[in-house]
Write a structure and sequence with these properties.
The chain has 175 residues and is an alpha/beta fold. The protein has one domain: Leucine Aminopeptidase, subunit E, domain 1. Helix content is 37%, strand content 18%. It is built from five helices and seven strands. The radius of gyration is 15 Å and the shape is globular. The relative contact order is 0.23. Bound molecules: adenosine-5'-diphosphate (ADP). The site of adenosine-5'-diphosphate has 22 residues, from helix 1.
Amino acid sequence: MKGRIALVKGDITRIQADAIVNAANPNLLGGGGVDGAIHAAAGPELREYCRTCGGARPGEAKISPGFRLPAKYIIHAVGPRWQGGHRGEAEILRQAYLNSLRLASEHGIKTIAFPNISTGIYGYPKEEAARIAISTVKEYLENHPEIERVIFVTYDDENYRIYKRLLGDEAEEAG
Ligand code: ADP
């Protein structure tokens, strides 16, 4: 696993990877937080493209070109909205990561960057979300050598500290 997981603090729109993942809304037409930043950086072509994608349910993911981003693709994953933890949120969050990774494998993507899905406007407790993100990614990487590198991009200090603690020396610090 060593060398295949990286931790970065910063803006995911600046990441040079084959794909970046967006924490999208079900209509895929843009929103606040990281979604707004990605739409602003990718340009209006992204919204035009996403109109034709038919949306995505929580746990699902759809792929688009990266348009003006350094990344070739954007994978739009819809995380769960936190409702107290008894509405299947953990499994939906796991599916959002897993379906993003599956799309990456299908499209020959070797490097993929994830934001901390659902931990902003959707209110998922950050440490619980980080544990799910990390365990889902690690399990996938064990079985999928075609994915060379997964970059966890943390934006706020709290997520950065949580990921740093949970990943320990398993992640390279990059960026
Ligand atoms: P959600 O609706 O899934 O909660 P948000 O965009 O509100 O999505 O938040 C998800 C995470 O994205 C939060 O941890 C937030 O700090 C982070 N974030 C916000 N802007 C950026 C950005 N430009 N790059 C990377 N992460 C970001």
